[in-house]
Amino acid sequence: MAVQEARGGADAAAHGGAHAGGCTCGDCPHGAREGHRRAVAEFLLMRDGFAAGQGLPAAVAHSAQASRQWVSEELTQSAELVAERGRAEGEAWLARLWRRTAIAVWALVVLLLLVQSLTAIGAGWTSARTAGLLAALLVAGALTTASWLHRARGGALAPVIGEDNRLSTSRAVAAAWVLFVAYAVLVLVGRLAAASGHAERDTLISGLELARGAGMVTVLAVVCGIAVLVRRVIGLRILGQRLQKVRADRPRASDLLTDDAGRGTFADIQYVVISAVAVLFAAVRLARRPDQLPDLPWGLAVVVLISAATYLAGKYAEGGRPVILSVVRAREAGDLDAPIRTGDDIEIRGAGFVPPGAQGADRLSRMVVRIGAVNVHVPLVPVAGGFSNPTDAVLTVPVPADVEPGRVEVQVVTAAGVETNRYAIDVTD
């Protein structure tokens, strides 16, 4: 199918229609999504067909090990195509994201203008409203410029995208506080520039004193420090093989609330929710008192600090090195009990074999079991809706004939490149 698609793209080029707006070849940003969708559909159809026992050639159907190896190789090749299409779609999505972020920023400016216009009915337009609108225009202009400069990396979201190509919760929270504080200071600057009397200017300058915004300044310092510390902690844990990380195809909004496997995590959710509530409270305080920094009450500030500490503790607690607990000879129904010999299947039991976010076939196919000096790729065994091998707790691999009889060590290398402990087994003739 990939060859047919490539030939179809060449034919389209010959007729002058290649890479047009409706291109679906998967080789350009216009057709990246369609190419990925088709590759996924073909892979799922192949996997479910093999799971039902269909599509096996007669040359390997007589041998369970041969058929399993052939199926695994076919699925691996198809999964590599899916991964390639997924990366292409992710790059195209990031290239388009800067326009969306710019539109969203200016939509917020328009919303602010509407809110100010509605609240000005009866009360009248004030210099504070003008200063707030001008500050919003300056912030929106800066974000739009940053979006264009980083248009290949997600626009304005580039600073909050982590090295694993996921949105970072700590960076997103810190960025929200930084933007709000910058906006609040610009509002005071605008009011100070428009002030005509000495008394009004002195009042605005005193509004920047630390005593007025101590709570908010403390929260800003803590969340920014946590954003830097979390990056350092994760980097050290990866280098120490105590945390497994795999790269995502593209960032998603759900990354702020979930782990790498897409499961919601309490530490991230509570940090985002409490921080969002605190920023909203500070925004209301700024609207009510635009002549000073928002005086975030110490009670609310302490709540945010506790939330930040919980998030940091969660980052320290997550992950762990994969471990082999036991290795036994795999036995099918009717087989006699026997020692492990070359050609037999062994079942490796443990934990952490599949890193979070590595449930895709292209990642699973990269798992390797080192038996003595021989590296054995873990075969993919399809079942309806997924794979029965490998799993996070159990791996099944054959003992190749190249393994010398005697005492050998078994070690698993995960898709993230992390090695487990060594486990010794006896292989007989």
TrEMBL record:
Keywords: Membrane, Transmembrane, Transmembrane helix. Residues 1-17 have a biased composition (Low complexity). InterPro entries: Ig-like_fold (IPR013783). The chain crosses the membrane at residues 103-125, 131-151, 172-194, 214-234, 266-284, 296-314. The keyword Transmembrane helix applies. Signal peptide: none annotated. Residues 1-20 are annotated as: Disordered. This is Integral membrane protein. The lineage of its organism: Bacteria, Bacillati, Actinomycetota, Actinomycetes, Kitasatosporales.
